[in-house]
Amino acid sequence: MSKTESVATGTANDFGYRTYELGEFAFSRDEFFAHIAWPTGSHVMSIDDFLRAIQRDVAWDFFYGIVNFDAVLGTVNHYGTVDLFAGRFNEAYRSAELDHLENFETPQIRETFKAMLDDWTNSAFDPFASPVETGTPFGAKEGSNTDAVTRRRVAASRMVGVPGDEELRSDTTGHPVNRMFADVPQDEPDIEPEPAFEDRVCAFNLFKYLSRSQVTWNPSVVSVCKDSLYCPTTEEYILPIIHGNDRVEWFVQLSDQIEWTVEDRDTGKLRARVVMKPGDVAAMPSDIRHQGYSPKRSMLLVWENASPELPDLIASGKAPTNPVDF
Ligand SMILES: [Fe+2]
Predict the structure, then answer these.
(1) How far is the CA of 137 from the centre of ligand 1 (A)?
(2) What phi and psi, each to the nearest 5 degrees, are found at residue 166?
(3) pLDDT tens-digit map of 37-84
(4) What spacing in Å lies between the alpha carbon of 83 and ligand 1's midpoint?
(5) Distance (Å) from CA 294 to ligand 1 centroid
C-alpha cells in the first residue's frame, strides 16, 4: 500500500483496478463486482450498483444522515466526520455481532471514495446517467470518465437564474431536452416588475429546467430561503442508495410516478410502500429509510430543511420524527 493525500491504495490487480484501504475496511473490484472486507466479515456488490451509490455519496458529500449502498454497507454523516459501516443498520448482522463501524475525518473518506470512484469507472460508464443512456460498467479496466464522476452539483445560493447565481439550462449550455421530456413546454415566464424593481424580480420555468437534466437521482439546490432548500431532481430506474433520514423530507411529485419502499431506518423492517402520482405530496419521517423506483423519467421536488440543529433536536426527542399528525 502507498499513501497519497491520505488515500491508501495498492497496485493494480489482474483486472487493472487498484485496491483501497480505509481503516480496517478493504475494497477491491473485478470485472463484475466490488468486494468489501472488514475484520468480522465480507460483502459483495454488483459493480454498477456500487459505482452508482458511491457516486452519490461523493457528489453529495455524504448527504443528510445515512447513505446505505444496500442492506449492509453505507455511511453516516456527522458533518465533519463520517462513519463507514457494514451491517450497522441490519438486524441480522447486529444480533450476530458481525457488524463493523469506523469513524473517519470527512476529508479522508472523501478522498478515498473519490479516488476509488475515478479508478473503478471505465470510459463508457456514467454512474449518474439512466442505465439506458450510458454504456457498461463491467469488464477489465478501460480508460476513465473523470469529467462525469467529478460533475459539480448545482447549488444555488439564492435561486437559479438570479444574476450571478446558477445559470439556466439551454442547448447552448450543453443541456438538451431529455428524450423523455420532449413534450415539456420550453417557454419562460413573463416578468412585469414595477419601476425600480427591474433587477430584483426573477422567475424561471422549473419544468423546462428539469426537462434538461442530464442526470438521475441527484437532488440539486435551485432555491434557498434561510434553511429551506428546494432540491428538485429527475428520476429514472432505481434510487441507487437507500437514504436513511436524520430529518423530515418533503416530497412533491411533479410528474409521472415513483414507487417508494419505506423501511425502519435502524432495522430495515418494511414499514410502508408509497406510490406517488403527479401532484402527490409526502413527508418522509426522520426515522425511516427509503428507496424509490421510477419506471419512466419523472420529476420530483425534494424539500430539505438544512438546519444543523435538527438531527440533535430529533434524536433528543425535542422535535418530532414526523411533521404532521392527522
Ligand atoms: Fe431521503
Answers:
(1) 26
(2) -55, 140
(3) 999 999 999 999 999 999 999 999 999 999 999 999 999 999 999 999
(4) 18
(5) 15
Band of pLDDT at residue 325, cut at 50, 70 and 90: confident
User: What's the gap in Å between 86 CA and the centre of ligand 1?
Assistant: 20
What's the pLDDT score for residue 1?
Answer: 57
Q: What is d(CA 220, CA 280) in angstroms, rounded to the nearest whole number?
A: 20
pTM, rounded to two decimals: 0.95
Q: For residue 66, how far is its CA from the centre of ligand 1 (angstroms)?
A: 9
How many whole angstroms from 16 Cα to the centroid of ligand 1? Answer: 35
Output the CA 14–ligand 1 centroid distance in Å. Answer: 38
pLDDT of 36 reads: 98
- In angstroms, how far apart are the furthest CA atoms of the chain? 70
The alpha carbon of 243 and the centre of ligand 1 are apart by a number of angstroms equal to 5
Residue with cell 425534494: 302
CA of residue 292 to ligand 1 center, whole Å:
10
- The pLDDT confidence band at residue 5, using thresholds 50, 70 and 90, is low
Ligand 1 center to residue 155 CA distance, Å? Answer: 17
Q: Which residues surround ligand 1, an ion (CB under 5 A)?
A: 243, 249
Task: Give 104-133 pLDDT, tens digit per residue.
Answer: 999 999 999 999 999 999 999 999 999 999
Distance 245 CA to ligand 1 centre (A): 5
Cα–Cα distance measured from residue 241 to residue 57, given in angstroms and rounded to the nearest whole number: 9
Q: Measured between alpha carbons, how far is 11 from 268 in angstroms, rounded to an integer?
A: 37
Q: How far is the CA of 249 from the centre of ligand 1 (A)?
A: 6
